[in-house]
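Letters spell out the chain; the tokens describe the backbone. To illustrate:

===
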Amino acid sequence: MDSAHIRNFSIIAHIDHGKSTLADRLLEATGTIERRDMQEQVMDSMELERERGITIKAKAVRMKYKGADGTDYILNLIDTPGHVDFTYEVSRALASCEGALLVIDATQGIQAQTMANLHLAREVGLRVLPVINKVDLPSADVNGVTEQVFDTLHLLEDPILVSAKQGLGTDLVLSAIVKEIPPAGGDPLKPMSALIFDSTFSIYRGVILLVRVVDGAMKKGARIRFFSTGLDVVVEDVGYLMPKQVECAELTAGDVGYVICGIKDIHQVRVGDTLMESARPLSSALPGYKEAKPVVFAGVFPINAVDYPALKAALEKLNLEDSSFNYFPENSEALGFGYRLGFLGLLHMDIVKERLEREFDLSLIVTAPNVVYRVQTLDNAWKVVDNPAKFPAHGDIKAIEEPYVLLTIILPIEFQEGVLNLIKDRRGEHIGIEYMSATRMLIKYNLPLGEMVINFYDRLKSVSKGYASMDYHPIGYKVSDMVRLEVLIHGDPVDALSQIVHRDKAYKVGKMLCEKLKELIDRQNFEVAIQARIGGKIIARETIGARRKDVIAKCYGGDITRKRKLLEKQKEGKKKAKLLGSVEINQEAFLAVLKLDEETKG
């Protein structure tokens, strides 16, 4: 079809504002999916996506629509992930479009992620159409949200009012897409260029690329090349997603579809990369590509050591579907053999852990998440450290840099004090405050990422009674006074409990760790010391008393020296046991300590 009749658009929204439900109604209204085949969140194929009400993977679907003037149009909906962890994937999906529907909940108004997604859409030059959803609910404040659209988002168009659940306003949305969003454009005669905005893996077909063709045409049998890696492949199959795969002869300029090239290793494919013809290579790639790097790391160990081979196989299989996390073997003296995984964020970590446990029936221990630090040693060399156990010795460190994020929070004014105190406890640096209305405010702070990765979101929801919303993006590294806190049990450091903390909080965290471990570790036949150490200095200690056996119970009389002899013998035995004995820490103790509430750090 002529690219002038193609509209490529996305739907962006804060979590739970009705993005997937609106997509369902558009598919129904255009007849892409028959009503008898319809189910809720049809674009979300993963069980976790349906359960949590979020979109984890980007997807695309092609819809046919007849306009009011009788013209046939092709509407390509590119669905984007709905969480801040997947910001890069969202930006690549948006780069494949010419327009976006910005969905806002009429009962909640503008949230932090609404503004973040709008910013991403404006960065790539999209035409943004505001849509106010859930207008049928009794608590809907349509006028108030409309004012927010004009005053806070600075959008000039009147919002389209819809109820995606009821199907009200769907025709208005389709009509606006055709009228307001620019046509796809592109020149079919130019050398082929296509943007990869996502990829999936099939055990039968290999890697399936989701692409937007910018110029030229992609045909079966053509030889194409990846710009960033130089990999040459032959196109085996091309087609559209409706939403199931439908083969076609070629994808031309403006089209969105899938490409299969028989690639068996998903790590050879990078989201945001450019595809081009091998015979007519491009001089420059399409803009915006960068390699996604993990920002949060955690160790994953099987609770039962015999499950290690099963964990290895599970990670290999899952990594074929989700190449955005990386993993490498790790050996812990306390937890045995496992893997250290790098994630895009906390939700990404939670999803990977949940999938490993559900889909592969594994019982896992996940260590406390930590971020990547940059350490400058005395010889002025910089070292990147993603594992507290691998931190250089205290005396070898000249400076430590930790990653910071710009944090944006939107909340009702009544919860201002609690939220600001929470951010202050996490070493936040004030940037600015803006009052959006008489009842809502926006605050911006620079915050260490390490302070945010453990329970910050849960605490924020708690102090704001669920009304605050947040968004963040990395801003670089800053020098901080960080130290490695080690936990010693009976004189031996436990690597799995090592943490990187700010010096000001080290004593509090160490004391709470020692107290918690004293509650959880079983008594031994000898006295056990639990210590927290920074460098060579012990900052906190708890002692577990020895298990006492009444050795003089059998003495019913006689000389006191007999009792003393038995007690001295027991004392010598305990002294020997203390020198030679080792303490076994049960798994429950590790699980409880690793799940310590963020109060230990706040």
In short: The chain has 14 helices and 32 strands. Confidence is low (pLDDT under 50) at residues 577-581, 597-602.
